[in-house]
Amino acid sequence: MKKKRHTSAYEYSGILFAGCVVLGLGIGMLCGRTGAGVLIGVGVGLIAMGISRMFSGVVSRAFKDEDESE
Q1: Whole-prediction pTM
Q2: Closest to 56 in 3D by CA, of 5, 10, 6
Q3: What is the pLDDT of residue 55?
Q4: Can you tell me the distance from the alpha carbon of 69 to that of 62, in angstroms, rounded to the nearest whole number?
Q5: Coil, strand or helix at 61
């Protein structure tokens, strides 16, 4: 039987981080505070990356338990 492929949030955590940094840079440039915008983007990106990795672990365990019960 072919195993199902579950896309995890862990795979996208790096993209989340980069997106937050670029978004922070853009907002910082609009406000005239580029450095502050980048630092805020890095902070938000790290938090988003941590949450996505934590969520990924929870979801992975649920799918693993589901696959083992079949």
Answers
A1: 0.69
A2: 10
A3: 79
A4: 11
A5: helix
